[in-house]
Amino acid sequence: MRAKEQPYGVPDKDNPEWSADDIRHARPGAEVLPAAFIENVRRQRGKQRAPTKQMVSLRVDPAVLDAYRSTGKGWQGRMHETLARHAPKSTRTRKARPASRRAR
Question: What SS3 class is residue 83?
Fold first, then answer.
C-alpha cells in the first residue's frame, strides 16, 4: 500500500524547508551540476502554435539601430510599433514577379 502523499509545496524529510543560512550559501546550478546536464535541461522556446509574425532580415542604418537599442528593454516592440504606424494602408496583394526573373 502506498503512503499518503503530502500536498505540493509542503516540506518533508526528503525536502526540508531552506533556512536563511541555506539560501545565503546556495550556488547556481551551473556551478555545481555537470555541463551536460545543464545543456539538457536548459529551457528553450518551443515552436509557436499559431505564428502571428514572420521572421525577416532587414538592413538598418547603425545609427537607427543604436537609437532604438538605447531606449532599453522592449526596443524591438517599439520598432515594430513605428513600422506598423507608417505602413501603407492599402490592402492590395503583391503582384507576382515576371517569369523571366530568377528567384534569389
Answer: helix
